[in-house]
Amino acid sequence: MFLQIATEFATIGSMFSLSQPIRLAVQDKLAALRRLAKRNPMQKPFYIFGAGCQARCILNAALEAGYRPSAFLDDHPQASDLLGVPIFVAAGFPFEPGFRFVVGIGDCDRRREKFDLLVSKGGEPMTIIHPDSSVSRFSRIGAGTVVFAYALLDPCVRVDENCIVNAGAMIGHDAIVERDAHISAGARVGAGCHIGEASFLGIGAIINNGVTVGRSAFLAMGALVSHDVPPHFKAVSPHRKEAILTPIAG
Asked: pLDDT tens digit string along 178-225?
């Protein structure tokens, strides 16, 4: 399976205009895929889309959870590999049906775009849960979601597909986190909260029990929120006081 992808990519690779360092490293990356194919001849390939900071953290979580990515895919790669894993140009990549993936992009809208694209190409989103997190057996984690180290999810929490629950985040019982949301490191989501689709909760944001955060809302770092946040609103807490809500431009 990997050998076929490597062979096809060697042919397709000439279609792209790559930087000199990347062009020189193509043979090394193809060799890496061939070595991986020999170790895992029956395993479906696993790709991380994106090759930036978020992707690097997801790589670490995946390895800790026992998953070895085959490669990173990126629209505009700036290097030939990331922490020893080869990077390929995403455009025109010869996917096989049933490949596994997770999206390593922090921006909610871009992550949703790439997630839907990869599903449309026959991909199967993987759920990655770091072994040092604490996820209740009574909670439900959607496909393509990544839960990082030291995150805590209480019983009866629902986290939908393609979400990020970052390191040290806490989600109280009976809370719902809709698809494509990003719960940043150290954020606190109270019991019974409802976090809307593609919402972003900044580092250390605190949401009181039962609060609803609307779709595509943005909660700044350290925001203190005890009232509902409408869709497409931003919440900022000057001097750690109750958040001030303003519409997001555009």
From this structure: 999 999 999 999 999 999 999 999 999 999 999 999 999 999 999 999
Q: Is the pTM of this model over 0.90?
A: no
Q: Right CATH number for 128-247 from 2.60.120.380, 2.40.40.20, 3.40.50.300, 2.160.10.10?
A: 2.160.10.10
Report the C-alpha gap between 7 and 33 in whole angstroms. 10
Distance of alpha carbon 37 from alpha carbon 12, whole angstroms: 19
Instruction: Name the strands in the sheet holding 200-201, side by side, starting at the edge strand that comes first in the sequence.
Output: 128-129, 146-147, 164-165, 182-183, 200-201, 218-219, 233-236, 244-247
b/e for 207-224, b at 16 or more Cβ within 10 A?
A: bbeebbbbbbbbbbebbb
pLDDT value, residue 17:
46
Environment class of 187 (CB within 10 Å of its CB; exposed 0-12, middle 13-18, buried 19+):
buried
The structural domains of the chain, with segments of one domain joined by +, span 2-125, 128-247
CB 206 within 8 A of CB 191: no
CA distances from 2 to 32, 82, 94, 102, 157 (A): 10, 19, 10, 18, 37
The CA distance from 121 to 128, in Å, is 21
Residue 225 pairs in a beta bridge with 207
Tell me the per-residue pLDDT of 30-45, one tens digit each, with 9 for 90 and over. 555 555 555 454 578 9
Q: Which long-range contacts (CB under 8 A, 24 or more apart) does 115-120 make?
A: 115/144, 115/161, 115/162, 115/180, 118/49
**Fold classified for 2-125:** Rossmann fold (3.40.50)
Average pLDDT score over residue span 67-89: 92
